[in-house]
Amino acid sequence: MEQVALYREWRPQFFCDVVGQEHVCRTLQNAVMMGRTAHAYLFCGPRGTGKTSTARILAKSLNCINLNDGEPCNKCPSCESITKGISLNVIEMDAASHRGIEEIRDLKQKVGMAPSGGKYKVYIIDEVHMLTGEAFNALLKTLEEPPAHAVFILATTEAHKVPLTILSRCQRFDFRRLSRAAIKAHLSQVAEAKKWTVEDKALDLISRQAGGALRDALGLLDQAASFAGGKIRRKDIEFLTGALGQQELEGIVAAAAGCDVPAVLRQLDELFERGCDPRQVLLQLADHVRDLLFDQNTGSREQSFYAQFLRGIALAEGEMKGSSRPDLILELTLLRLTGATSPVDDQEQRRE
Q1: d(CA 135, CA 178)
Q2: What pTM does this model have?
């Protein structure tokens, strides 16, 4: 049996299977039932949130001959061919590698061709923001006056790069980052179906590391299952991702709060020796301190320190983007927070 990646194996086949995007799926499902579908859609949002999967489900619904409350049957020839990726009525194009005007001209010539054994021809253009200006201009005319049988679904992670002339001709749907709770619940369902044993703390860490992208979470779970043999513990995820353990996070924050400069530097040296990415360390510290800030047992004095800590992390994150030494920026940030180097003192010294 061919081995399939976990995120492909669990790709949603119905609107009801799409996790965390109920506002999008309900609207599209009702539009299909009422016969009020648009000729062009723009699906925008972070990676791994279900844009392409939802586009394929919509394509199946538009051509399905046995619709059930707007959901495709997944049994008719049209649905099966789209699921297998061999349908002549669904054309997918990756704009990142086919971004020129010639590709769009070729698409325009084929748009006029009638669908083969279905109602609609659906054109899914992924990463549409990568198209050149000339390609967008060529696409614009088709979006203005499309054939009755053509439906365009444009997907992008950067909607602000799509020209306003294109945006104004599409129905826009914003896909949201998934909550950690939603990702954790889905991963638990997948693990149960695959008969894997996964620690609750491991699911928490995977959900946190995924950053709201379900595809990334499934990929990490798949990798962890291969590494741990189906018995996944939190320390396995920490080892695979380089994530810090709870004790390490608490140790760094405690050392900074206690103005213990040697302890802060020693712990950072140990992390860098292990090959930990300073940017990932910074983000994990931010998550940990944020949890402490909103803890009900946190006193007002501690809240003030945690708020200052988060502000320092936010500034460091911006500094790291253009730096070749993110490790140095992380060290300086934590040293400032220990009181060893005060930003106010630095400014006064410069004035003098």
Answers
A1: 32
A2: 0.83
